[in-house]
Structures are given as structure tokens and as C-alpha cells.
Design goal:
By secondary structure, the protein is mainly alpha-helical. 63% of the residues lie in helices and 4% in strands. Helix 1 runs antiparallel to helix 5.
């Protein structure tokens, strides 16, 4: 009878986990599916992977998965014909590329399927981490819910350091009557965290398993899991490499008391080292490229060897409080687990300051999203230990009520998009409004035509940033004008292509100057002058300030910028280009006389965005261009050579 009851309870828990995971997956995709249904019922287009709603996902990640579908693995330069070693993370796009294959290149459908599957997987992984940590099923279910249905796995530290963020990120997520519509899940961003966080959580779980009982099998398993992070996300592998280094140092110091742990840690390190070999080879090959240094400084690394204090003292205090809580609550009861948690916390201090050793640091703000899942796990364990002395039934009742509130909140959020009202259409977040998903139908139809009628990987020229992004995602084309963070072209070549495209499309000098100068605060003026919608204005600002020619300060890097333009505070970078650079670009533009027949491109794309940028152009009478496609808003020409 006991075994039967135990089996029944186990089956009930498995069913609860599966149903909860399916519910989480549904909440991640249902709002956008409702938006699609609403727009298509009105005869409008629906474009899931468009820059206005996706931003980082569109400009950096989506094209890499499409690149795998087009037959290139690992994904390399998205804008050149020849393959070249690139420091892109190949594992995340590989995880959802099979879905693209199964759906025959339908990127929007593949995105929805991937969102559903990996949101459900993340719930299961958070639940599994809870089970590994405290082994209580109800608490672990709760951990799965807060990990996936609240923003705490991404923004816990910020929520604890700000009263406003605590209310927004914690209180309001358990209060269904607060009905700010959200069209996406808190972990939905691709690649990171939707596709990267599962690998990271598995690596954390593997280290917990290894530390609990060091064996050869667990050491190799943990080494493989940590090794996969080299191909997943830079901050994740760097952070866990620091943690493993601390674990190895401790194993060395205690080798007499724990000789088996010391030996097994050797297996762990050897496995990680073996797993990292392809990564190191690719890195060395990349660094040998002439253009590698230019690509790296386009990331605007933070140069200098110094201890970071600006903006992080609150974080340091928070880590110290967590460490004290671990010692006070867990050290006597679970000494070894407490030691591992202290390594996790100590590595957070080290991560913020790796520039002391390396001399630079990339995307320092990404450390918080790296640390917060671990802080959430440690806080979850501490909460369990502090409350376990109270009546279990009462605690379980409270947890069940909180999970019910979360589920109700998400259900009401989905309903807001199923029955949209003014709150949805006037959402403070422009990217979440249904109308932001409706791009010009002529553009959407033209992408489909390109994929069906232009063979291979056609080279297409357009001066419009958003056009080039969407061509990379929705077609096999290789745009002439690159997104600088996704190419190893030299800055000088990127500038030349930017100016050449503008010249061939008849952009006036005055208009080019406006495009180069545009800043976010200038958007109202640009909107009035050029008739741009606000998101289009922001896309120009992005192209100007954040990517390439248009982002000269990132091409220089902070150190060179200080040297050339007298900026001495490493925390200060101007918005836009210095006047000297603007003048240089305009002088070069005046001297250009490009010809279509000399261009490294095969087709010309002329649509709504191109009309806005150029002020109107007529290619129909150009004898070097043959029109091969036309609909209401888009024309495509073949370049006669």
C-alpha cells in the first residue's frame, strides 16, 4: 500500500509539473498569437521578427539561426560570401534551427514553437533545481513559477535595491488586478535568455550534483555542462569558470581531508579544458584576422585596469548580505552546500572586476543577469530553511495561493490581447502594441518573392537599416550594407558601403547629414521633416549611434575616443558622431561617383523605408537596372553588368 501510494504521489507530481510547464509555455506565446489573429482578421500583415518589436533579437540573433537553415554552420559573417571564423555563440541558434527546418523556413512559426518549448523547458529546469536544492516538491513547483512567470531570474538584484522595481517586479506580478498588458514572457528574449539560460541552469545543476558527491561520472558530466557554455554565452562561461577555479582552489587546500574530491576536481577541470578546445581554436583563428581588432572595439569595451565601484556598491552590499545569510542559516546544517554558495557569491565580486586582469570588459551590465539566477536559487534555499520550522500545511497553502495568483495574472494578461482594448493599443511600451507587428504588406510579400524566385544567396543593396535586418532574417539574401556587429568588415569598408548606398539611391547631402546627426531627442524634428513614424526614427538613431558608420565612437572604442576627442571620464560617451567625423563623411560623400555596374551587389531593393530615406527616387529609367518585381510598395531591380 505504501509503495502504491508513493507511486501515485509521484505520478501526481509529474502530471502537475507537465501541466504547469505547458501552461507556462502557453503564456509565452498566447499574447502574440492573439495579436496575429487580430491583425490578420483585419487584413493586415503580421511580422513577428521585426526590429520594431524585437530589437536585439532582430539585429543580432535571428539571422544566425536563419544562416544555419541556409546551410552555414557554425554561423559566420552574415554579409560576406566567404566563411570566416567569428566569435558568435553557435549553440543557441543551433537549438532552434531544427524547428526552422521542420517548418521549411517559416521563421515566425518556428519562433512560436521555440518559445513554447523552451519556456516549458525552463520551468522544468527551475523545478529540477529546486528539487536538487531542497527536495521539496511544492516548494520546487513554486520556484518553477517564480523563475519563469516573474522577472526575478533576470532582475532580482535590481528589485531588491529599488523600492519601485520591487513593487513592479514582485508585488504587481502577484496581483491580478494590475493589468498592464505584456505581449511577451520575461525570459522570451532570444537567444538570451530563452535559449542560453537552459544550458546555464543545467551547468549549475551539474556543479551542485558534483559538489554533493564527487564521482568521476559527475565530474565529467559537470565538465561537459560547463564546457557547453563556451558556445552559449560569454558571461555565463566566464562566471562559472571563476566558480570552478574557486572550487579547485578549495579542493587543493583540503586535499588531505578530502582526497577524493581533489582527484575528481582534476577530472572536472580536464573535461572543461577538453570541451573548450574548439572554442580556443576558433578564437585564435579569429584573432589572427586583420579585421578582428576593429570588430572587438565596435562592441565598445570598457578599457582600463581598475576596481569597479561606480554603480555597483549596492550590488556589493547585497552580495555581502547574502553571504552573511548563508553563513548564519546554512553553514552548520549544510556546510558543504554553504561553501559552494559562498563560492557563487565570491565569484560575483570577481566577475565585476575581471578587467583588473584583462585590461578590458565587454557589456559589464550583463553581469547582473548572469548572477541573478544564482541569487534567486540561494534566496529560495534560505527562505525554505527559515520557514520549514512552521506548520507545513500553512506554508503549502500560502505557496499554492501565490502560484494561483501568478497563474491568474498571466491568464488575465492573455485575455487582454484576446479582447484588446485601448489599454493594449496605447501600451507605454511601443514594442508591445499590436500595431507595431503590422509592417507594410508589400515588404512582407517581397521577402517571400525573393526566397522563391532569386536563387542562392542574392546580394541586395538597400540604404535602409531595417530592410537589411529583415532580409537577413526572412530571406537567404546577403545585404550589401551590413550590421557592423555581425560582420568582420573593416570600419573603412562599412563607411564606404554606407556612403555608396546613399549615393546610388540619390540621398541628398542635406538628408544624409540629417541621418548622420539624428539623435533620440531629435526624433520629433525628424518626424515632422521626413514624415517618419517614431519607431522608424529610432531605427535611424540606432543605426547612427550604435552600429558602425554610423557608430563611429564604438568603432574607436573608449580609449581611442578619449585620446582623439578629449573625453576623459570613462563612463561618459557622447551621443552621435563628433563634428569632425561628420564633416569627413560628408566630404567623402561629395567625392563619390559610384556606378551600378561596379557594385558588389546583384539586386536593388526599393520600398517604403527607402522612399523615406531618399525622399523619392525613380529607377525605372535607369538603363543599368532591370525591374524584376513590383507590387504596390516595393520594386526590385536586377543590376545589369
Amino acid at each position: 500500500m505504501m509503495n502504491l501510494r508513493s507511486g501515485t504521489n509521484r505520478n501526481t507530481v509529474v502530471a502537475a509539473v507537465v501541466l504547469a510547464a505547458l501552461f507556462v509555455g502557453a503564456t509565452y506565446v498566447a499574447p502574440r498569437l492573439a495579436i496575429r489573429s487580430y491583425l490578420t482578421s483585419r487584413g493586415e500583415s503580421f511580422v513577428m521578427l521585426n526590429f520594431l518589436v524585437m530589437n536585439d533579437d532582430a539585429k543580432g540573433y535571428m539571422g544566425r539561426a536563419r544562416e544555419i537553415y541556409d546551410g552555414h554552420f557554425p554561423p559566420t559573417d552574415l554579409f560576406l560570401d566567404h566563411p570566416a571564423p567569428m566569435p558568435f555563440n553557435p549553440l543557441p541558434p543551433l537549438l532552434w534551427a531544427p524547428v526552422i527546418f521542420l517548418l521549411r523556413g517559416n521563421m515566425d512559426a518556428a519562433y512560436f514553437v521555440t518559445q513554447f518549448l523552451f519556456a516549458a523547458v525552463l520551468f522544468v529546469l527551475f523545478y529540477a533545481l529546486g528539487r536538487i536544492t531542497i527536495r521539496d516538491r511544492v516548494w520546487s513547483l513554486f520556484f518553477g513559477f517564480i523563475g519563469t512567470l516573474t522577472p526575478l531570474a533576470r532582475f532580482l538584484s535590481e528589485s531588491l535595491l529599488s523600492a519601485d522595481r520591487f513593487v513592479n517586479n514582485v508585488i504587481k506580478n502577484f496581483y491580478p488586478l494590475v493589468r498592464t498588458p505584456l505581449d511577451r514572457g520575461f525570459l522570451s528574449r532570444m537567444d538570451d535568455p530563452l535559449l542560453t539560460l537552459p544550458v546555464y541552469l543545467m551547468a549549475v545543476a551539474a556543479l551542485l550534483f558534483f559538489w554533493e558527491r564527487p564521482t568521476r561520472a559527475r565530474a565529467i558530466g559537470a565538465g561537459i555542462a560547463v564546457g557547453l557554455l563556451f558556445y552559449t554565452y560569454w558571461h555565463y562561461w566566464m562566471y562559472l569558470a571563476i566558480v570552478v577555479g574557486l572550487m579547485a582552489g578549495y579542493a587543493l587546500l583540503t586535499r588531505r581531508e578530502h582526497p577524493e574530491r581533489f582527484r575528481m576536481t582534476g577530472w572536472l577541470l580536464a573535461t572543461i579544458g577538453f570541451a573548450a578546445v574548439p572554442y580556443v581554436i576558433n578564437y585564435v583563428r579569429f584573432m589572427r584576422l586583420d579585421a578582428a581588432a576593429g570588430w572587438i572595439v565596435r562592441l565598445a569595451p570598457d578599457y582600463g585596469r581598475y576596481l569597479r565601484t561606480t554603480g555597483v556598491l549596492g550590488d556589493y552590499l547585497l552580495y555581502a548580505l547574502f553571504a552573511l545569510a548563508v553563513v548564519a542559516v546554512l553553514f552548520r546544517r549544510e556546510r558543504e552546500r554553504a561553501i559552494l554558495y559562498l563560492f557563487f557569491i565570491l565569484a560575483m565580486f570577481v566577475g565585476w572586476n575581471v578587467q583588473v586582469a584583462t585590461g578590458f570588459m565587454l557589456a559589464t551590465g550583463h553581469w547582473r543577469v548572469t548572477y541573478n539566477p544564482l541569487l534567486l536559487l540561494i534566496g529560495f534555499h534560505l527562505g525554505y530553511e527559515l520557514l520549514r520550522r512552521y506548520d507545513r500545511k500553512i506554508i503549502y497553502g500560502v505557496l499554492a495561493a501565490l502560484m494561483a495568483l501568478l497563474a491568474a495574472k498571466k491568464t488575465m494578461n492573455v485575455y487582454a490581447f484576446v479582447r484588446p482594448d485601448e489599454r493594449v493599443f496605447s501600451n507605454p511600451s511601443v514594442a508591445s502594441r499590436p500595431q507595431s507587428y503590422a509592417l507594410d504588406r508589400g515588404m512582407v510579400d517581397s521577402w517571400r518573392w525573393i526566397d522563391e524566385h532569386l536563387p542562392g544567396e542574392p546580394k541586395i543593396i538597400s540604404p535602409a537599416f531595417m530592410t537589411n535586418l529583415h532580409l537577413v532574417i526572412y530571406t537567404s539574401a546577403r545585404p550589401y550594407l551590413p550590421v557592423p556587429l555581425n560582420t568582420i568588415m573593416r570600419m573603412s569598408e562599412i563607411e564606404e558601403r554606407f556612403l555608396t548606398a546613399a549615393k546610388l539611391f540619390g540621398v541628398s547631402r542635406e538628408r544624409l547629414s540629417q541621418i548622420i546627426h539624428v539623435r533620440e531627442q531629435d526624433c520629433p524634428t525628424i518626424v515632422r521633416q521626413f514624415g517618419l513614424a517614431d519607431p522608424e526614427c529610432r531605427s535611424l538613431e540606432y543605426y547612427n549611434v550604435r552600429t558602425g558608420v554610423p557608430a563611429y565612437h564604438e568603432g574607436l572604442g573608449r580609449k581611442s575616443y578619449r585620446k582623439n576627442f578629449g573625453v576623459v571620464d570613462r563612463e561618459v560617451l557622447p551621443r552621435g558622431l563628433p563634428q569632425a567625423k561628420v564633416d569627413e563623411l560628408l566630404v567623402r560623400y561629395d567625392g563619390l561617383a559610384p556606378q551600378w555596374r561596379d557594385l558588389d551587389a546583384e539586386y536593388v531593393y526599393y520600398g517604403p523605408l527607402e522612399r523615406v530615406l531618399t525622399g523619392g527616387a525613380d529607377f525605372s529609367r535607369d538603363r543599368h537596372l532591370e525591374r524584376v518585381f513590383q507590387n504596390g510598395t516595393v520594386e526590385i531591380y536586377r543590376i545589369q553588368k
